[in-house]
Amino acid sequence: MSVWLLCALLFSLIGLTKQDGHPVPIKEVKVYAEETDTSNNGAWVLNVAWRDEFAENYEFEKISYDIEVLHTEEMKTVHYETIHVMPNKTTFYHWKWTSPIPLQCTSHSVRLRHRDQHYIGEWTPLYTYNGQDLNATTTTVFPHDQVFMVGSNITFCCIMETDSNVPLVPFLSPISKRTYITEEPVHFDRPSESTSDIQCDVKGSSSVFHTGASVFIGYPPDDQNLTCITRDLSSVECHWERGRKTHLYVKRETNYKLNGRDCKFGQCVLHAMKPQVTNWTLIAKNPLGVKTLTDTADPTHRVWMRAPIKISHAAYAREVTLRWSWNENNYTWFPMICQVKLNGSIYNKTFSGKGLSSLVLVNLQPFAKYTARVRCGSYEHFYEWGNWSKITELSTKEDVPEAVDVWIQYFEQNTYVLWKPLTQQQSHGIITGYEITIGNPKGRSRKIDIGLNTQLCYKITFGNETSDQIITVSAKNSAGLSPPSTIIVPSNPDNEVSISHINSSNSGFEMSWEEYPYSTCGYVVEWFPTYNKKQCDVEWEKISECDSDACDTWNRSGIFEAVRYTVSVYACTNDAPKLLKRSQCYAIEQKPGKVQNLTVKSNGRNLELSWDEVPLDLQKGFIQGYNVTTLLSDSETVINTTVTKKHKVHLKLDPGSYTFRVSAFTSGGEGEGDYATFRMDVEKNFDQMIAATIVGCSAAALVFIIITVLCYRKWKWLKKLLYPDIPEPKLAGKWITKGIYCTQMTEGYMKCEIQEVHSLEHPAMSESLHGLDLISSNSKVIPGNFYLNISESPVDVSYYPVEKLTSILENASYNLTMPEPVDVAQISDLTLEMQDAYLPAPNFVQNNLVVKDSESYKPQSACRTNV
After folding, report:
1. pTM of the predicted model, to two decimals?
2. Residue 373 carries which DSSP code?
3. Nearest Cα to Cα of residue 163 among 70, 73, 71
4. pLDDT tens digits for 5-29?
5. Any idea what the CATH number is for the domain that residue 50 is in?
């Protein structure tokens, strides 16, 4: 410490004079920290004040000073700046500097010097603001318990109790012997609802000591939209929006002042009000900043009235009078306009007057409960509706009921008059019964009273009457009878009209019809379940006049079941209703029920499946067709699917075991699971097998006959193709031969003749062959003609059986000698010649006979000759 003071004194002595021997003009330098509510927890702003005694002697308009800030212990410059001020000898010059670390972290010294265009003065002595590291008794972290804005980067310092202590992370950078700062500034990117803690762990000789600091992170005030109004015409209330949340609480929360008066959020009231334009200023302040809001207006133009009190009423059947009072005396002369909320909805009329305290509500529903509340506002300068009064409950009195809705029904040759029950709004009270009047055009009538416990339906009995009946129905309550509802019932209703089908649409159906020129009161649409119609179970709706030539706007949905309905359209006339159109439809088409009575008739492989349609009450839609599925019984494999609109189908199947399924379908889908089944076996048909066999054999025979005929007609061509001619042998020299020619006869005999054949030198000679029996009656017939050449002289040959001839001719050859038993001298040089071709031996050569083709050798004559 003594060394530092000695150095400071030395610098002061050196700086007393300029280089030219003149003293330093800067006098009375003061260095101090700026005082705030939290400066003891961390001072950031260093203030420097001084006075220049030679200020008036300077030639320039502005005086310049160099200012340097140093960390005293290390004599390290942390800031240097040149400032310019206007010369003033009598006042102090003032300069502020915000330190990046709290001033308590270490001592800060400041020195100044004068600067102008001619020379630079000497530095003043060092003026020091002492830090708390000089006399620290405990380890401390700065700053602590202070407020910072979101997004701030704060450098913390940790002051050690002794020089031997060393802090741990994050305090790693020393700036003096006892002070360490965070290596990097700590960034706060979000607000903290409570505190953000910075821990400084100090490592001593044997243990670690913990200390730290807490800071608060938030936002400056962001209040908006200041608006000042009056409620009682004598004071002003100011309201504003809080804006962004500051996240600062208790001692650090935002404070408000309105025109210099302290107030809280939402509770700023100025009791003095003047009926003139007035300015209001709101200052919102917290440790991070200040926000100023202003508003200007005439308070009498911003009247927000309070709620009426003590609401009472007087109720009648269709109107109610409301009365109330005010708790503000100034309202008695104030022009106002009032509004009523009836049963949660704004009443369609407003009410006005000075000091208004009553009003009348009209056109209300008789015998009905209501809730009402009132609010009012300024009539001349309307600013905003006032507060609603408390809800008051009220009830209107009974009135005569409305007319009932009457209709007629024809059911099982009887006529009924029906009417719909009145709703609570239509009954105007408690219905006690109904009165029916039955009359005729002649004027006779009778009345019938019906209690509430009976059905709203009455059977009309014509008796001996042949004319139409005039029926009127009225409902009654304690206030009287409703207006009569009249309908004319014809004695012979005309229900002859064609029935059409209409499709469903959005779970309902639409009806259209041509306008009826004699309709006087619109139309009636009637509907009821087609297949389970009950007495008095009819719904209807009355339609007003059509806007065009066709009434096509009636459609209903969501009120029907999944059954078939019969829908009729009647024209309302001066007489009985006129039936115009009748249709059947399904509001919702579903999958149909099961097909009934599936039967199968078979004729061999031809099958006929037939069935009955789905019962009407199970159709659930218009049947569009049937799906017929054929399956193999063993494998459940579908082999055929047929769609038909008829109740029968014909199939032709191969023998086997089959299962048939038949199901109906509508626009709602197919009756899955609800199908009729039938199983049967298809057998082979024996008669058909016989017929098929006969047809096959006949076809084969026909083909064979055709082939045979063709072969017969083409015999020569086939013979030439299959067996061509072989040239016959030629004999040289002169020769004479004799041949035996036989022709097939009856009874197993052949007629033969001997014919002589000559060479070219000898003419042909023929002899008669007679008396030779060649073929016996029991011998095998040899087809065709044969030719035998004999070289000897002729012999007598009689008719012989074939056996005898074959015994004679055993070894026929080209040189053939007749055997002894034959009465022939000698047969030699026998030569066989075929003019066309040799034929196969088995057919033509037998027992030494050579058979010639019948076409090649024809017998010349039938005779008996001796050779």
Report:
1. 0.52
2. E
3. 73
4. 444 444 444 443 333 445 678 888 9
5. 2.60.40.10
